[in-house]
Amino acid sequence: MVMVAICDDETKTGADLELTLFDIFGKLSVKCEIEVFFSGEALFKAIESGSHYDLIFLDIEFAENNMNGVETGRLIRDVQNNYTVSIVYMSRVKSYALDLFDIQPFNFLIKPLNHEKIDEVIRKYMKVSGLWSEDLTYNIGRDTFKAQIKNIIYLESHDRKLRLHLSDGRKEEFYGSIKGVYQEQLKKFDFLFIHTSYIVNYDYITALKFNQVFLADSQTPLPISKHRRDEIKERYYEIMIRRRV
Fold first, then answer.
1. Residue pLDDT, tens place only, 32-72
2. Domains and CATH numbers, the chain
3. Which residue, 53, 106, 178, 181, could crosslink 5 as a Cys pair with Cβ 3.0–4.6 Å?
């Protein structure tokens, strides 16, 4: 569970960002709770009262006579002595670098906010925070093993036995649910669930056809289930576009 706070006096910006974050975390199969604040004072008061946040999206410019985002960040860091929460600043201007230096922000987003940039920030946060493991873990008997996500070409299922096909030519077999492995470990790494028996790594796809996927170093294509064809095509191009931004 990731606890998120949004602090922005622009109602529409806060509402749009909240929906965007729910969408991104949902696609990553990560649960989150989001609270929206409309002033730095309200956010700081909640933190003073014991509210905990892992990630804060904090606007810099607020209405005159209100505490701005820089001041709010300094209170969080210096008064609350909270250096663990990740603060992502938001602004329509870029000239705040020196003001933010001692606050140690996690990132900086330029308004109007861009979905792809927000997605990039969330994925970076997941990695830095340790919530995003770079390894697939699986059990063989009573022993636990790991395989680096980047080395997995595809995963296949037969009955309850799963087989990992790795880039170095190795094949690892273990028992489990292919659906469970996808939802819990592979979906957020841009793997495509093309068939009830196959999950493929986007990075190794050389060609996507109407009903087949071709993978690097393999002469045999894998089938795409009839009822998944539209979904797979849409997700494939969504990943492609996101990575080009």
1. 999 999 999 999 999 999 999 999 999 999 987 789 999 99
2. 2-128 (3.40.50.2300), 135-244 (2.40.50.1020)
3. 53
